[in-house]
């Protein structure tokens, strides 16, 4: 297949094509379901303990949460840029964008570790109260997703650097990007739900 | 809608997802282990209780009874038998088996010594003081 | 059968069926003991019958898994088995050790058996499903390692397909998680916590990999659907199984002295556990609908589809019924648990082993499929056993609901034995359903002896 016909067929299918591998979408759906059920359970439990939840919510560090929101959004933007550059046929030039995305994600991890250290120092654990159970469970479950996402971005960075991606080979980078956007999306629900909404 | 669906990607997601959720299970296990002393009544885990657990196991009590809801469902729950019946009743009951009542479920005679009976009761007392999140719902188990 | 060494699967399958018959005999005895309490007492008290019933189940399923591995790994790897002699040796060791253990349960007082077999050196006995003497447990580990060595070497020297990799991962996981059966601390809560690392991580973890691999193998063979397609879906299904099942372990940590947060984690993730089973059902039906050939072995297709449906009902639906902590608070350790246990084990593991036996046995006996008459009898046995299992489950569920109501929900709770008298009728009905199951099993065994014109094996 010549490069021309490859890009042609890519163009033809762009409109209706599912980005990334179908397998990741099953995984993403399962994950969103788990998070979704967790969120719904949180909402119902909160409705029964509004005062406890409101009081303990005030102890959370909203500033670090806000910083982390910015970091993840920026990171997602960098990943989008990386995908665009790769699709345009410049796999190697996608690598710096992925490195920047990785840096933002790593920033999230660092901020989160400081937040956890402060909470653990204050003697807060999964067994402290229903609110802290939800706070720690949900944020930690998400935190592990960020770490897995970083591993995936590192693999994508390695792939981009070696020139693996291009208009005819977008599966790897798009799949990783889809996962990272899910991690971002979950945080965009999690942060207001647990840190902000009263 | 068309899409890519490759075996290699499905494989990577399988391995990644498995490692991820196994590590999550390990993380929760670490937290459980470090906090277990708050609920597992280990402060009262005396050598006598351990000896009683040994009696419990070597007489295969779990083959008919449940203990904290786990076991067979042929005979009563024993996680809370200590507060339900008290130590003297439990010992007298074990010693008087089997009842031999025709057509009724029978419990074997284990020929336990007084020491063994005391050990077993100590184990059942320790078990009843485990914080099982208010389970069972009532004294009948 | 493409490789002569696959024939070592034959004794494994025969032993599996033989022990299955034993399991059902003791099941019937227990069913009778539920309603006529002193039946067989004191010769075989209920606890001994139950130990034999559950241990035989585990052992015959292990025979089935091993037979399946010996059959499918050489075919998948496209090479002869690394050592057929080792496989046969292990067969006899496992069979003799298993039979000796069962005889030990029946003939020796359990406490004496414990003393004789080194339980005072390392106490591992007397815990549900892990009642085996220390020597038997060590024997299981040795047999498992020799078996894993044998099939791993076979795969390493041949083609490495997804099916054999998943099968091996499941079997290695089975052996590794069994090691937790040697850990039995005096602290009851810790004991129970890690006990589930054997029991849950087996049946809702690594066994699902074995089951999915076996099902995928048979589906490729009987439908002729492209291997690529089946293998991709295999990965997706086992991913879903472990994503939900690993943290789903938490649904056993509600009321055994573990921290309260397990009620949330366990409920949420185990509520998703039906998804992989549902996916397996859809997958099985889809592949059969997209079949590219009409395989002469219709019975094997029926068993395969039955596995999908019954695993979803038993493990998925009946599991979900009582998996949420607020429900489980009332149902924990009641006849509802027994109902779920029966249909889940039958639907997932009994049926998948019978599926592979149904597919492989005619080939091992030198024909593509059994005669029409034999297949009709075999399919009758499927319906008899499956429908009676549905009724066993329904009667136990009814008994369980009534038990929970009278003993736990009511404002004036009744004592355990009084409640048992109230639900006696359901135990009688369960027993009769069990008798029909036994008739189905006899029909199944009979089907192997029915002659008739069978499809000849066409060797390529």
TrEMBL record, chain A:
Membrane topology label: Multi-pass membrane protein
Entry-linked PROSITE patterns: COX3
Domain Heme-copper oxidase subunit III family profile: 1-198
Key words, A-Z: Membrane, Transmembrane, Transmembrane helix
Transmembrane segment boundaries: 22-44, 65-83, 95-114, 134-157, 177-197
UniProt keyword Transmembrane, yes or no: yes
Predominant cellular place of this UniProt entry's protein: membrane
Xref: Pfam families: COX3 (PF00510)
CDD domains: NorE_like
PANTHER family for this protein: CYTOCHROME C OXIDASE SUBUNIT III, NITRIC OXIDE REDUCTASE SUBUNIT E
Family: Belongs to the cytochrome c oxidase subunit 3 family.
Protein name listed in UniProt: Cytochrome c oxidase subunit 3 family protein
Source organism per UniProt: Aromatoleum buckelii
Automatic annotation (TrEMBL), chain B:
Residues of the Cytochrome c domain: 47-128
Spans through the membrane: 12-30
Entry keywords, A to Z: Electron transport, Heme, Iron, Membrane, Metal-binding, Transmembrane, Transmembrane helix, Transport
InterPro entries, per database record: Cyt_c-like_dom, Cyt_c-like_dom_sf, Cytochrome_c550/c551-like
Entry annotated with the keyword Transport: yes
Pfam (any one): Cytochrom_C
Protein name, entry field: C-type cytochrome
Lineage, uppermost ranks: Bacteria, Pseudomonadati, Pseudomonadota, Betaproteobacteria, Rhodocyclales
TrEMBL record, chain C:
Main localisation: membrane
Subcellular compartments: Membrane
Domain Cytochrome oxidase subunit I profile stretches: 1-460
Keywords: Electron transport, Heme, Iron, Membrane, Metal-binding, Respiratory chain, Transmembrane, Transmembrane helix, Transport
Superkingdom classification of source: Bacteria
Membrane topology of this protein: Multi-pass membrane protein
Entry-linked Pfam families: COX1
Stretches that traverse the bilayer: 12-36, 56-74, 86-108, 134-151, 163-183, 195-220, 232-256, 262-288, 300-321, 341-361, 382-406, 426-450
Keyword GTP-binding included in the entry's annotation: no
Similarity remark: Belongs to the heme-copper respiratory oxidase family.
Protein name: Nitric-oxide reductase large subunit
Source species of the chain: Aromatoleum buckelii
């Amino acid at each position: 297949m010549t490069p021309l016909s490859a890009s042609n067929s890519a163009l033809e299918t762009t409109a209706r094509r599912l980005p990334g591998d179908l397998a990741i979408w099953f995984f993403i759906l399962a994950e969103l379901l788990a998070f979704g059920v967790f969120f719904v359970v949180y909402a119902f439990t909160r409705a029964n303990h509004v005062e406890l939840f409101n009081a303990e919510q005030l102890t959370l560090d909203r500033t670090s949460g806000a910083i982390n929101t910015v970091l993840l959004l920026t990171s997602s933007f960098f990943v989008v840029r990386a995908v665009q550059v790769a699709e345009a046929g410049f796999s190697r030039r996608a690598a710096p964008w992925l490195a920047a995305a990785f840096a933002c994600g790593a920033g999230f991890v660092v901020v989160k570790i400081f937040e956890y250290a402060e909470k653990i120092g204050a003697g807060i654990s999964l067994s402290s109260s229903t609110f802290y159970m939800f706070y720690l469970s949900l944020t930690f479950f998400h935190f592990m997703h960020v770490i897995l996402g970083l591993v995936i971005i590192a693999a994508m960075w390695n792939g981009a650097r070696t020139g693996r991606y291009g208009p005819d080979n977008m599966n790897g980078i798009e799949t990783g990007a889809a996962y990272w956007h899910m991690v971002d999306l979950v945080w965009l629900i999690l942060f207001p739900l647990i840190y902000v909404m009263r | 809608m068309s899409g890519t669906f490759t075996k290699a990607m499905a494989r990577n997601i399988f391995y990644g997802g498995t490692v991820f959720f196994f590590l999550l299970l390990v993380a929760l296990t670490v937290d459980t282990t470090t906090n277990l002393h708050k609920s597992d009544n280990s402060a009262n885990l005396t050598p006598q209780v351990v000896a009683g657990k040994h009696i419990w196991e070597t007489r295969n009590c779990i083959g008919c009874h449940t203990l904290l809801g786990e076991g067979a469902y042929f005979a009563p729950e024993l996680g809370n038998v200590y507060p339900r019946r008290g130590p003297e009743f439990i010992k007298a009951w074990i010693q008087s088996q089997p009842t031999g009542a025709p057509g009724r479920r029978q419990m074997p005679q284990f020929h336990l010594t007084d020491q063994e009976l005391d050990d077993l009761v100590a184990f059942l007392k320790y078990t009843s003081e485990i914080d099982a999140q208010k389970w069972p719902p009532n004294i009948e188990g | 059968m493409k490789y002569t060494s696959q024939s070592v699967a034959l004794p494994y399958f025969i032993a599996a069926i033989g022990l299955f018959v034993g399991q059902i005999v003791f099941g019937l005895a227990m069913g009778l003991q539920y309603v006529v309490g002193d039946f067989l007492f004191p010769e075989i008290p209920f606890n001994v019958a139950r130990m034999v019933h559950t241990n035989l189940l585990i052992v015959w399923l292990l025979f089935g898994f091993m037979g399946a591995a010996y059959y499918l790994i050489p075919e998948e790897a496209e090479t002869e088995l690394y050592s057929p002699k080792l496989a046969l040796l292990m067969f006899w060791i496992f069979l003799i050790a298993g039979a000796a253990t069962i005889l030990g349960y029946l003939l020796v007082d359990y406490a004496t058996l414990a003393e004789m077999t080194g339980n005072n050196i390392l106490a591992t006995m007397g815990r549900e499903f892990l009642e085996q003497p220390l020597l038997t447990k060590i024997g299981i580990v040795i047999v498992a390692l020799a078996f894993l060595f044998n099939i791993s070497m076979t795969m390493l020297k041949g083609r490495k397909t997804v099916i054999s990799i998943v099968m091996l991962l499941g079997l290695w996981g089975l052996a590794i998680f069994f090691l937790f059966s040697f850990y039995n601390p005096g602290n009851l809560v810790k004991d129970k916590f890690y006990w589930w690392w054997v029991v849950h991580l087996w049946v809702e973890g690594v066994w699902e990999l074995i089951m999915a691999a076996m099902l995928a193998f048979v589906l490729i063979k009987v439908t002729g659907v492209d291997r690529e397609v089946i293998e991709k879906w295999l990965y997706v299904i086992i991913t879903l199984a472990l994503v939900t099942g690993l943290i789903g372990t938490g649904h056993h940590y509600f009321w055994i002295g573990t921290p309260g947060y397990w009620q949330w984690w366990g409920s949420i993730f185990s509520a998703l556990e039906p998804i992989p089973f549902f996916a397996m059902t859809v997958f099985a039906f889809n592949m059969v609908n997209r079949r590219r050939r009409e395989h002469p072995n219709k019975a094997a297709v029926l068993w395969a589809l039955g596995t999908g449906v019954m695993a979803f009902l038993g493990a998925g639906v009946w599991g979900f019924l009582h998996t949420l902590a607020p429900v489980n608070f009332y149902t924990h350790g009641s006849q509802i648990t027994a109902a779920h246990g029966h249909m889940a084990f039958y639907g997932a593991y009994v049926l998948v082993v019978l599926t592979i036996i149904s597919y492989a046995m005619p080939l091992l006996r030198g024909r593509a499929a059994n005669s029409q008459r034999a297949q009709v009898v075999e399919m009758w046995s499927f319906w008899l056993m499956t429908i009676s299992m549905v009724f066993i489950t329904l009667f136990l569920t009814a008994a369980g609901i009534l038990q929970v109501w009278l003993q736990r929900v009511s404002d004036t709770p009744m004592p355990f034995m009084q409640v048992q008298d109230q639900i006696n009728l359901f135990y009688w009905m369960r027993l009769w359903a069990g008798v029909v199951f036994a008739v189905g099993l006899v029909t199944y065994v009979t089907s192997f002896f029915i002659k008739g014109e069978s499809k000849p094996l066409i060797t390529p």
